[in-house]
Amino acid sequence: MPDDMARPLIRDRGEAGGSRHLEASVSDSPVIGIMGTGDFSRSLARRLVSSGYQVVVGSRNPKRSEALFPEEAEVTSQVEAASQAALVFVAVFPEHHSTLLELKPSLAGKTLVDVSNGLRINHDGPSNAEQLADMFPESDVVKGFNTISAWALQRGPRDASRQIFLCSNSSTAKSSVMQLCRRMGFVPVDMGLLSSSLEIENLPLSLFPSWRIPILCTLFLFILFYLYNFLRDVLQPYVTAGKSVFYKMPIETVNVTLPSVALVMLALVYLPGLCAAFFQLWSGTKYNRFPNWLDRWLTSRKQFGLCSFLCAALHAIYSLSLPMRKSARFKLLLAVRQMKEGDEVWVEEEVWRMELYVSAGIMALGLLSLLAVTSLPSVANSVNWREFTFIQSTVGYCALSMATIHTLLFGWGRAFDPSQYRFLLPPTFMLVLVLPCVALLGRLALCVPCVARRLQQIRRGWEKTRHIRFRLPEDNCRNRLDDVSNV
């Protein structure tokens, strides 16, 4: 007690490498150390100070770095920071971990949080955290905070992801870091032992791993339909009649291609679910594993849907820009000049077709927008499972139906017009309608009462190879099983 009373409350700037913080004699907050003075260290120190922690920063040159940190944080030497702190963030590049070996006695028995990342994805190991644990065997190493940026730390969890992945071989050290995460406003995710650190370090280095196939599929379909439309609408008039319409390539050809890709991609969202349902009906059980290609397809449905929404939104913007083109205004003036007296301008059939066509397109885009919004994690977490499945399944099929109707109204009678088969190729909308019609017909087939009842039985555990008398819940039976003894 006398020593505590004799200690000054405000330490002089010359002591402890230029300390600038107000130190209380008794404090409930533990001292958190940070090794390193980079951008991440400064943001981490600011976030820890705002969360009520005492922060001490270890630097090789404290006088040069103290102006970069908050006033409440103490910037001192690495040796003194290691001796004061109970928990230390190692915020230096992994190739510089060896420079901290002289701190091994001061860091013994303490928790080290490794926040480093590699330069490239590492599949072989060992991870940076495992190497740090080998260097400091008497310390408890926790891997974490490497999946969030300095901006996310500085702004807090409101403007960034709230999850922080943690792993360690010490449950005590991991629990203390998890408590620190919660106090900072983040959500810790326990990833198990330190052997999972390699997976955590590879997370921020992965470039859209779940988006690769949907994006490639979107690009492939776009190139395919663009070349097909170019061949029919641009090249065919030039070859057969010598008419140059290459001006259509930037706007019109793209605008015809985008809805084709959007509708096919939307059909690819619901086709894997139908394949899975028919696979279960064919096998008579839900316990057979899906093929690998179907499993990967099922897990990519969200990305397929968002790519479809992107193409549909771009199609709407391109469509709105069509009247603004000089070529469109020129065509309109030319049509007015060539119009003869007595020509019928108002064609009832064409007027109704266009009205219904535009209305169906707007409805399809609105429903697709609802699907895209509910796929966001923040929105999906605010609805229950029944609401989510209703939107993604029922509303999704409504969007697919409206988009199919939109395409049918666009085609109208063109499928029966021989002049539309340029180079003997069918109109684009006929090719586009194949997969959506297959998806809608497959959905109708699953709605047949006998098929729907059998599929519901299978998904409740019924198997055709095991003689279980199964009854659905409209009867007075428990757990939807009438007799489970006859197996």
Automatic annotation (TrEMBL):
Location of the Pyrroline-5-carboxylate reductase catalytic N-terminal domain: 32-118
Keywords for the protein's UniProt record, in alphabetical order: Copper, Endosome, FAD, Flavoprotein, Ion transport, Iron, Iron transport, Membrane, Metal-binding, Oxidoreductase, Transmembrane, Transmembrane helix, Transport
Reactions performed catalytically: 2 Fe(2+) + NADP(+) + H(+) = 2 Fe(3+) + NADPH; 2 Cu(+) + NADP(+) + H(+) = 2 Cu(2+) + NADPH
Subcellular location: Endosome membrane
Region feature (Disordered): 1-22
Highest rank taxon of the organism: Eukaryota
Main localization category: membrane
Tagged with keyword Isomerase: no
Listed GO CC annotations: endosome membrane; plasma membrane
One MF annotation (Gene Ontology) recorded for this entry: metal ion binding
Membrane-protein topology: Multi-pass membrane protein
Cofactor entry: heme b; FAD
Cross-referenced Pfam families: F420_oxidored, Ferric_reduct
InterPro entries tied to this protein: Fe3_Rdtase_TM_dom, NAD(P)-bd_dom_sf, P5C_Rdtase_cat_N, STEAP_metalloreductase
Ranges that cross the membrane: 213-231, 261-283, 304-324, 356-376, 388-409, 429-452
Residue span(s) of domain Ferric oxidoreductase: 260-400
An individual GO BP term: copper ion import
Similarity comment: family membership: Belongs to the STEAP family.
Protein name in UniProt: Metalloreductase STEAP3
Organism name: Notothenia coriiceps (black rockcod)
Gene name of this polypeptide: steap3
